[in-house]
């Protein structure tokens, strides 16, 4: 994890200087109608006035999404935890906010030339719907491997979709070239003041819905959402701690913050495509470096476990990137002071990925057990094994036989089992039960 240093970074106005006080030293909570004039440096490309203007622009367009309490996470943290359900926003993510504000601010001449965007899915849908609502032609570049439901939804919202590039950064380069050739206006997913201001409206909603909030946890890709929330929240409540979260396999902010400038990653690997960004944006990076108190990373196991928790306990469908805030809280609940708001940034998940992720999450939670064991190759042997598992209350998901391995005796067969269990303790009990029954457990 990376914490914001106490001293300003070179070239970043006010970085780290304004919010070094701990919660017990912080100013008393204020309402969104009483900004603290010295709380956020005015040199930033985005101000709270920009966010307020964006909020007016979005009236009747973006939903004020629900803030739901989480009993399970509250028990972990020891103080109230709320989920900001931006997965229930129009288009399924927060991206509509920034995209609409950016396109609405274009001149008639710019609108006539059309808009261009690049995205793995969420920004694509946000731009497509925003452009359609404003009567603007849109062309969206998406990676070749983008989930089919996201591609289909983007087209359904009215955009022309071009599949190009293996990752979003390659699609973005293609979009930039296309915009230069055609005169279309590039709607960047995070690196523009209007986009950051639009995303910041989510921060104003959090203050209105949970005025007693002490910590906000939010996923970070390019940084637009975290930056917007930070500008909006810190201006009114500098005592609120803002924590960004990245996937371990696509964490560009920790090395960038350490270097004091955006640094591009050589490679990325994560299921959380919504925050799979290889380089922070220049506009959000300056704000994140100054106002976001900490950037943490989470594992793939944590992401899948968080997605499973959202589905089972909160009854909410959330994509891996959208569950990153919950993953951070689950990984280290003692590190967060409540009342806490975890932002569920999106719910656009490919059904096939959801299936794999849920299976991974169940395995990470100790609710799947894979075993290979040997038994005599005789009639009734498998039935006897399954009987033992039934008595032990294990649900058999899959069984496969191996008879041709050289390591097996002539009268032996190896069986691979995939079991659904009640948790880690049940896994240990099952292995012990099988060994006690005389079975040779290979793994």
Automatic annotation (TrEMBL):
PROSITE patterns: ACT, DEHYDRATASE_SER_THR. Its cofactor is pyridoxal 5'-phosphate. It is an enzyme of class 4 (lyase). Its EC number is 4.3.1.19. Keywords: Allosteric enzyme, Lyase, Pyridoxal phosphate. Residues 1-38 are annotated as: Disordered. This is L-threonine dehydratase catabolic TdcB. It comes from Streptomyces hazeniae. The gene is ilvA.
């Amino acid at each position: 994890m990376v914490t914001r240093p106490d001293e300003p970074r070179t070239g970043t106005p006010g970085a780290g200087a304004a919010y070094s006080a701990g919660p017990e030293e912080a100013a008393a909570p204020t309402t969104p109608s009483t900004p603290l004039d010295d709380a956020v440096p005015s040199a930033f490309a985005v101000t709270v006035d920009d966010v307020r203007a964006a909020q007016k622009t979005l009236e009747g367009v973006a939903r004020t999404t629900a803030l739901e309490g989480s009993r399970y996470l509250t028990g972990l943290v020891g103080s109230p935890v709320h989920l900001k359900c931006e997965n229930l926003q129009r288009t399924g993510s927060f991206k509509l906010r920034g995209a609409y504000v950016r396109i609405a601010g274009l001149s008639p001449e710019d609108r006539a030339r059309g808009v261009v965007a690049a995205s793995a899915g969420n920004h694509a849908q946000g731009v497509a719907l925003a452009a359609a609502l404003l009567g603007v032609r849109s062309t969206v570049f998406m990676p070749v491997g983008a989930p089919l439901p996201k591609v289909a939804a983007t087209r359904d919202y009215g955009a022309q979709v071009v599949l190009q590039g293996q990752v979003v950064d390659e699609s973005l380069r293609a979009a930039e070239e296309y915009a230069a050739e055609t005169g279309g206006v590039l709607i960047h997913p995070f690196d523009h003041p209007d986009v950051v201001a639009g995303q910041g409206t989510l921060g104003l909603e959090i203050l209105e819905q949970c005025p007693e909030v002490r910590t906000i946890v939010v996923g970070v890709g390019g940084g637009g959402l975290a930056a917007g929330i930070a500008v909006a929240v810190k201006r009114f409540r500098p005592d609120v701690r803002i924590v960004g979260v990245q996937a371990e396999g696509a964490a560009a902010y920790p090395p960038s913050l350490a270097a004091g400038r955006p640094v591009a990653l050589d490679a990325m690997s994560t299921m959380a495509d919504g925050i799979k960004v290889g380089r922070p944006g220049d506009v959000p990076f300056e704000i994140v470096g100054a106002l976001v108190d900490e950037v943490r990373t989470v594992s793939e196991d944590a992401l899948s476990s968080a997605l499973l928790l959202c589905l089972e306990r909160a009854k909410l469908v959330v994509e891996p990137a959208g569950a990153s805030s919950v993953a951070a809280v689950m990984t280290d609940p003692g590190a967060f002071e409540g009342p806490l708001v975890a932002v569920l940034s999106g719910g656009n998940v490919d059904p096939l990925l959801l299936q794999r992720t849920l299976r991974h999450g169940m395995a990470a939670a100790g609710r799947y057990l894979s075993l290979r064991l040997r038994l005599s190759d005789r009639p009734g042997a498998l039935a006897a094994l399954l009987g033992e598992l039934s008595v032990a209350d294990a649900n058999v998901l899959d069984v496969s036989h191996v008879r041709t391995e050289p390591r097996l005796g002539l009268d032996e067969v190896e069986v691979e089992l995939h079991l659904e269990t009640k948790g880690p303790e049940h896994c240990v009990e099952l292995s012990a039960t099988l060994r006690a029954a005389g079975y040779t457990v290979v793994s």
